[in-house]
Specification:
Layout: E1 16-17, E2 20-21, E3 28-36, E4 45-47, E5 54-56, E6 71-80, H1 83-94, E7 100-104, E8 112-118, E9 122-126, E10 129-141, E11 145-146, E12 150-154, E13 157-163, E14 172-177, E15 183-187, E16 193-197, E17 206-209, E18 216-219, E19 222-223, E20 238-245, E21 247-253, E22 256-257
Antiparallel strand pairs: 1-2, 1-7, 3-6, 4-5, 6-10, 7-8, 8-10, 9-10, 11-22, 12-21, 13-20, 14-17, 14-21, 15-16, 15-20, 17-18, 18-19
């Protein structure tokens, strides 16, 4: 008897919008597919009389790289089927127009995030019945892919963690001060320090959000300020050595990958 073994084909994951597969919403990629435009570095130069060339005034990150501008991602989409199915697909997609969405597919090390907009619907008809619709969706996305949350537990003293991605990222710190500690600080291996100082012992939970878009420091839910010498420093990719004084805690970060 001849036995035939069916070869298992690899599973191909369709793009997901806000974590929902497009195919689940009766949408598929058209022949236009997905176009990811380049992210251009934000470079600033100035002519200076009396010297050759120009002065580079570009703001750079902790690695010396220029900050990148947004990129436009365009998807050509279509929906086919009954008129009710097409209307449901239109309604779901249009509800996201103008909002900040995430887009991911296959083995990307994260998701693109940005504000979404829709082009004109191109309805296709067969006689008196609508049979399909096409639309172009675009996202004004941040340049980097944003990975899933990663968390590391930190002890008092020196800690070594390995940060994924290929661009500096901004951690969230959750700290528990030691008994009778009047100063709590975090220091990296590059001379940056983030510290809180009090006239009496610091008690309660400390949360520090370092992302420039939503930066804040709270003790027991109350807004506080760090010391004047403090930096809200990012984590560099690769090995980071972090020294905690007067506390223990955790850090959470989302790896950033530029491709």
């Amino acid at each position: 008897m001849l036995y035939q073994r069916r070869m298992r084909l690899p599973r191909i994951e369709d793009p997901t919008l806000n974590g929902v597969p497009l195919e689940r919403m009766m949408l598929s990629l058209s022949s236009d597919g997905v176009t990811v435009e380049a992210a251009e570095p934000a470079v600033s130069v100035q002519d200076m009389p009396g010297r050759d060339g120009q002065i580079d005034l570009t703001l750079t990150d902790a690695t010396g790289a220029a900050y990148m501008g947004n990129r436009t991602i365009t998807l050509g989409l279509y929906a086919i089927g009954g008129e009710d199915d097409i209307l449901a697909a239109k309604t779901w997609l249009a509800a996201l127009a103008g909002t900040v969405v995430t887009l991911a597919w296959r083995g990307l090390p994260g998701a693109y995030r940005g504000r979404m907009s829709l082009g004109a619907w191109q309805d296709k008809w067969a006689g008196r019945h609508q049979i399909a619709t096409l639309v172009t969706m675009s996202i004004d996305a941040a340049p980097c892919l944003i990975g899933r949350d990663r968390t590391a537990t930190l002890k008092a003293g020196a800690n070594t963690i390995h940060v994924k991605g290929n661009r500096p990222c901004w951690p969230t710190w959750t700290l528990a001060p030691a008994a009778n500690a009047k100063t709590v600080s975090i220091q990296d291996a590059h001379g940056h320090q983030l510290a809180i100082a009090g006239t009496t012992a610091i008690t309660g939970r400390i949360t520090i959000e370092t992302d420039p878009d939503r930066r804040e420091l709270r003790v027991n839910g109350n807004l506080m300020t760090p010391t004047l010498e403090s930096d809200y420093f990012p984590l560099l990719t690769g090995v980071n050595t972090l020294t905690l004084t007067g506390c223990t805690g955790t850090l959470t970060y989302q790896p950033l990958t530029l491709i």
